[in-house]
Amino acid sequence: MSGAGGLAWQKPGIAALYVCALLLMVAAGWVTRQFNQPINAHVMDWTAQAMPSDWQVIRDSWWHWHLVRLGIGAAAQILLIMAILLDRKPI
Questions:
Q1: Tens digit of each residue's pLDDT, the chain (91 residues)
Q2: Residue of 33, 6, 29, 32 whose CA lies nearest to 18
Q3: Distances from the Cα of 23 to the Cαs of 41, 45, 73, 86, in angstroms?
Q4: Domain chopping of the chain, boundaries
Q5: Does the CA dihedral 73-74-76-80 come out positive or negative?
């Protein structure tokens, strides 16, 4: 293998960063699919005249899972950037 990806597998610490970033990206997608999207689908049936009485609880639940997804995604991006920077060939 050539290029930055090929170098990473020769450095287990950097390879681990790439793998952890990938797993966190998958986790962010899973949170979206399992928690945010079902709430989105439920909300799409609402009208301004016929909102459920507990709409604030539903909104707060969506916001909670959005923040979880945001945190996981941000961690994935940080690990990916770290891996890329550490995996570069010296100039």
A1: 445 556 567 888 999 999 999 999 999 999 999 999 999 999 999 999 999 999 999 999 999 999 999 999 999 999 999 999 998 888 7
A2: 6
A3: 26, 33, 10, 19
A4: 21-44+53-91
A5: positive
